[in-house]
Structure to design on (273 residues):
């Protein structure tokens, strides 16, 4: 009953935060735990009392927004996506950059959580792509997230083995040092990665990118109008011929024409305009 009450409460305030309930169905239990802790901190009794508190304290909306931030990530999440990136997309982008006289491949990892996605890209680039293209083209990654705590963990580059369970086993000793139950990213794989605190709804990193990944964030949790607004800003940062990656279970808003599906691969798009 309490879980149902929490779900109804979440759905009541989501429109104000421009969030969508379907994206939270599988993770709403975690949000409910956080909400319950917040209600206890305020010495309130139940969700109805918290609703009244929010109405009287407008600053609580910002705290409520932070409570709804989902921080789930791991290395090599969605194996097929990284397999395609490693075997085809990254080598192709690198060759085009070299032919065009460029001197680096730039990537934006949006909603990077604890850095697993950014480090996965750097590991694959260093160990598999550079030997394939036979040229040490630098890969520059800027990884952004709204959550300061997960960014601090990302900068430390220290993870439990469970975060590495999807990563090909042969890459682990090459890319990590182990101390007890912790695995720390080796220094060569931390170079040219910048972690920055940004809210993707209102901020984007400077410059333009050959590759942008925004997976399991905008197109899962944001309502459609906000999705369109953010997507427009993202695509403004993507170079022509660049690649845009979303979650394999996500869908773009209808009517998007600036990008097309990359070789019918779920979640991967190429900018054509």
């Amino acid at each position: 009953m309490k879980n149902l009450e929490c779900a109804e409460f979440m759905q009541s305030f989501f429109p104000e935060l421009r969030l969508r309930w379907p994206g939270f169905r599988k993770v709403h239990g975690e949000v409910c735990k956080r909400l319950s802790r917040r209600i206890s901190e305020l010495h309130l009794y139940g969700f109805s009392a918290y609703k009244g508190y929010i109405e009287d304290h407008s600053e609580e909306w910002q705290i409520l927004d932070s409570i709804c931030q989902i921080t789930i990530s791991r290395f090599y999440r969605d194996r097929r996506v990284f397999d395609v990136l490693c075997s085809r997309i990254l080598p192709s982008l690198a060759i085009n950059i070299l032919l065009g006289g460029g001197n680096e491949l730039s990537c934006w990892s949006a909603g990077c959580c604890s850095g697993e996605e950014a480090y996965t890209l750097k590991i694959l680039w260093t160990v598999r792509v550079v030997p394939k293209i036979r040229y040490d083209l630098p890969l520059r990654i800027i990884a952004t997230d709204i959550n300061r705590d997960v960014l601090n963990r990302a900068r430390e580059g220290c993870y439990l083995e469970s975060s590495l369970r999807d990563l090909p086993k042969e890459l682990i000793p090459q890319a990590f040092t182990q101390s007890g139950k912790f695995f720390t990213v080796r220094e060569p794989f931390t170079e040219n990665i910048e972690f920055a605190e940004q809210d993707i709804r209102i901020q984007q990193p400077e410059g333009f990118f050959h590759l942008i990944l925004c997976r399991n964030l905008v197109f899962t949790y944001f309502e459609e109008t906000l999705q369109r607004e953010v997507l427009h800003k993202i695509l403004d940062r993507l170079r022509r011929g660049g690649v845009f990656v979303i979650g394999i279970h996500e869908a773009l808003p209808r009517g998007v024409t600036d990008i097309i599906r990359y070789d019918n691969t779920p979640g991967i798009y190429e900018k054509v305009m």
